[in-house]
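Open question from group meeting: does this chain pack into something compact, or does most of it stay loose? Before anyone orders reagents, we agreed to write out a predicted structure and look at it together. Recording both the input and the output here so the notebook holds the full record.
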Amino acid sequence: MTSLVWQIAAGTSDRAYFDKFMDYGVALLGPGDLGKWEDSQSERFDRFINAFGKRAEEGEPIVLRNGKNKIIAVGIIAGPYEYFDQFDDVYGWDLQHGRRVRWRKLEKEHAFSTSVFGANPPKFSRTWNEDVIDIVRKVVHSEPSQWKSEPLPPLPPPEPELQLAPTYLLPLLAEIRDVYPQFWDNRFNSIPSEDEMVAHFVVPFLKCFGWKTENIAVKWRFADIVLFRTLPRVPKNIALIIEAKRMDTAAESALSQAKHYADKFKVQGELLVTDGIRYRLFDYDGRRIAYANLSRLKQSSATLFEKLTFSNLD
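Structure tokens returned:
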């Protein structure tokens, strides 16, 4: 194989977005908030985005990796660099830098016995590993081969921003706009803990929707937050179970823990997971109902706000 072979990751083990790559025929890279990549302004971007935009060429193979030694899919780059507004919030990541890719997902994730992508693999780069290139060669030249010329799946439409946030949320949103970027400042030494996010953001967020102090139980029988429709605080009065994660971690991974407490308390209502900034509501069976990212509000967040309102939550 004479062309270059590229590798790209799709999130972390607890916050992966492989499905986005497969469903929409894309490879995505962030951070995207600096705006569209331009070769003439390459100094604004890191070397990975520059390689993604300039060096990788249409027709070259690309590997979708998982961690240091696993391959999920092999693809062929199917178009030039594009800036996709619709991927500005993928599980909290801004991934607007994109290329169209025709992917062929492996029937079974291929795991190598060594770290073929390196001890600390870059988010996007060329790979020289002969074992990886051999897998790519076999996939690209194997039958069936129609995947290499099939039409690309349609992209999702960009979701409009929420033009007018509820007035009762404005003070909290202003604080998030002010404080959230500072959490990455070296003066913090480390990002805020789960408990800190619950105290500073989650509980104030809930109070915006009419939940009073007596209805909000923190660390109730080890569950992070339990909302009660009325007193006394007993399982039959539970309105919602909430599990929190540390800021900028995979809030979605807390669903199993929330489900554990639902089973423990013998309730089968909705479940909310959060990192203090992002909130995702599930039904008892794990189906997604609503989502809001308080640092990047979209129109669909209104559904979550309505569902969380004290008078509406059944």
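Observations to bring back to the group:
The radius of gyration is 22 Å.
Helices lie at 18-24, 47-55, 130-140, 170-179, 194-207, 255-265, 301-308.
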